[in-house]
Here is the input.
Amino acid sequence: MDLLPLWFRRFADTYLMWDRGPLIWMSDVAILLTTIGIVAALTYFRRWKWLWREWITTVDHKKIGIMYLICALLMLFRGGVDALLMRTQLAFPGNTFLDPQHYDEIFTTHGTIMILFMAMPFIFALFNMVVPLQIGARDVAFPVLNAVSFWLFFFGALLFNLAFVFGGSPDAGWTSYPPLSELGFDPGPGENYYLLAIQISGIGSIATGINFLATIFKMRAPGMTWMRLPLFTWSVLASCLVIVFSFPALTAALALLMLDRLAGTHFFTMLHGGNPMMYVNLFWIWGHPEVYIVILPAFGVYSEVVATFARKRLFGYTSMVASLLVISVISYFVWAHHFFTMGAGADVNAFFAVASMAVGIPTGVKVFNWLFTMYRGRIRLSLPMLWTLAFIPTFALGGATGVMLAAAPADYQYHNSYFLIAHFHQTLIGGTVFGLIAGMYYWWPKIFGFRLDERLGRIAFWLFVIGFYVTFMPQYALGLMGMQRRMYTYPAELGWGDLNLVSTIGAYMMGLGFVVMVAQILYSIRHGERDLTGDPWDARTLEWSLPSPVPHYNFAVIPRVTDRDMWWELKQQGRTEELRPTADDIEPILMPKNTARPFFLGLSFFVAGFGAVFEWWPVAAVGAAGVLACFVAWESGEEEEELLPADEIRKTEAALGRV
Amino acid sequence: MSLLRTRTVLAFVSLTALLLTGCSSRYLVLSPAGPVGRQELDLIVLSVELLAVIVIPTLALLFYIVWRYRDRPGNTAPYEPTWADSRTLEAVWWAIPIIIVAVLGFYTAKTTFALVEPPQKDVKPITIQVISLNWKWLFQYPEQGIATVNYVKIPVGVPVDFELTADAPMNSFWVPQLGGQVYTMPGMAMRLWLQADRPGTYYGHAANFTGEGFAHMSFDVVATPQSDFDKWVASVKASSPPLTTAGYEQLKKPGVTSTAEFSSFPPDLFDRVVWTNGGRYMQGMTGHGMTDHDMTSHGMDGHDMTDHGTAVGQTSR
Ligand code: HEM
Ligand SMILES: [Cu+2]
Ligand SMILES: [Cu+2]
Here is the structure.
């Protein structure tokens, strides 16, 4: 050790956390090797230019969707590893695999990553991959802003993940309640990482919300009336409404807490008249709607999948739309159920209890409508449908335990216990994650042009779903036994050991399921069946009328919509030719041009955020200058669109055998 | 109803017990030892019953439909690809959850209001002040003049009026067998009524994460008959050291400790802790001891959280 100069040792201990043990060393090495590997591969295969041209500067919504998807899967892996580390620690009473500090950091990053850096980009992946195609548009309303959103998310996620190996992770929970998250109790950069990384990606999320609202309002093909809009698009609309109204609350909460930490204000400390309760309110005014932001699109996926695989019109379309909108509105009136035990009066608690239960009404209606879509249908059990079928009972139970939690006096007993943990995993995994996976399987052939292997997919499915029940059912019981959440260890006498062990075994099964799913994807890239029809599932909506993968400009000729299940109707009546372009109809198309500015804007935010995390103000200033420069450059006005000549489109369509 | 109810309790308990070897008394929430915990359990059971009414048929329907309408050769079940609307059916399934929510909502509200009252009106309650520290619990008996750390003795059959605050990040005070938890918050005094109906030692624990020592922040609630309780108070008074202000400062330092008792404590300690943690910025807290917690500024502007002051904790005076 004496070989190293003193300054380096100090640097390594403070920032690289070399004194924290083998987990960190292993991660450092792994990260280093992966980086070297990626750089080497890109160089060897001469892919740098390709990476820059095709991906980093792209504004094509489909490619942005793919990048979101890749990031989401990577983050699912990181969050999953965190989960397994926690479950390993909790497998036995009095275990010493992790120390308390390490455990605290891991559950904080696990929760934050899963919600903000896994579920959010995953829904955005589907928004991008599907919405313009479903509504007959060539792009989103603001393609460059869309790229900005992605790069803000990307660099936010990068900043957050950096915390693990550079300077220290946040450790105050994904809710980060003050005063625990204030300087007095939590010095060091971890909490700053949390605040700045979420802030940066959050700006991107608001922009995405606005972008897709504008897209759905303005870019629908002629004839695509509100009552002909596919349900997935409706669900995106509902989700974006919630984003636009709730994310600003998070922005405010994070900004104020950051001021408390970096500028010495006292918004959330009781000293000088601040109040932590204000944070708790702001956080959940965002936090509760957030769970609907991520589940509504999943509801949309289920609606598409059920209709397609039962070969039937969706039952009760109007009710389905109404319930989506009702849910998105009610979700604003229930946030206080997250702190029934913070001493609000009986009247307040009663109000929020009943409002929370009321969310169960439209949700229940949706379940019945899905059931009756299958009733008198012909159900094919392909992968997207399997996940949808697994969702229904899982979510019925998760919804039921949600209503149980909403009964305020009962919640005095469940709050902060494992019962709560079981509930939100049941809804987040059984509702959101199952839905996202179903959506991924469903639209995969459309985006990538090949199908994912069914056999491996089924193995992954059973491992994951059974593992899920084995993991989380015991946690309900543990909650009723009085086990608190966020305990890094527990004594043997209370008899919590057996159930915790079972839960850990289940978690490993889910982990295995995920590994098989990754294997499925890798295997299918090579051996997956190519989709030549563009419509492998015999589906119903407009996107399936296009070839797979979809050409850059989506629709050679914008379709005229005449029915809710447009594509299905045309197939029934043998009129599919109507959606094929004829050579004469094809006209030149104005398409957005690639640009590097979104990437540089994200990068500048990253530098600024990184500087602020460590209060290295010169670095932060460089980043801020970069942000400013990007805006100035924008003002100077570069050509943002270019004309795609008709001939080129004709050639592409001819190659696809469509004209 | 009561027959149905006992049956459901049995089903509920045996179901969870199935998941585990061993006795169901490990299920602390399901084996209450006092009126508060019992009312909460009643509501839990009611909610399970009501939800079972809707969830079980739904699941049965799901399995039936998937089984009957699978796409397999020779399936003769009717296939009606365009049948997608039925006013009557939809009316039914909008109505069912509405009714269930109405019933459950009614009983929820009723219990919520019931729990802000002392569990038993004809017995004089005892007050115990609780301060959560990093990472230990300090209990003070203002009427008896004694204090304990990490365990608390209470007389059986007497409603206990817990007044709670924190001299550290906010925590939550939870004794599952006696009843639900309530947060301890710096600068505020919260309230929680609990009562034990039979002697015993009940597991209590910090429920809101406060950092490193949090997992070890448990305490016992020991319920004894009044006479034993009085004897214990007398012996603590006689044989334990006093808690001085300096001693409190020492105790307050972050760390995990075992149990302790004190024959006295600085008389205004609880109020001072509330005050110095920010209670002084709360309106209306000056008159009658800060524990009245009449803090109109507590919640968010305008909305209902402003009621916080008049009904502190789950109770009102
Ligand atoms: C692979 C399966 C998973 C397992 C085994 C797992 C396990 C856990 C565990 C052990 C905790 C910490 C409990 C404690 O407080 O001590 C936790 C917390 C949490 N998990 Fe998961 N998890 C999984 C997947 C997910 C997913 C997919 C999501 C979100 C979509 C998620 C969201 C959360 C959240 C929000 C928390 C709360 C974090 C906090 O308390 O600060 N988890 N999980
Ligand atoms: Cu909520
Ligand atoms: Cu309060």
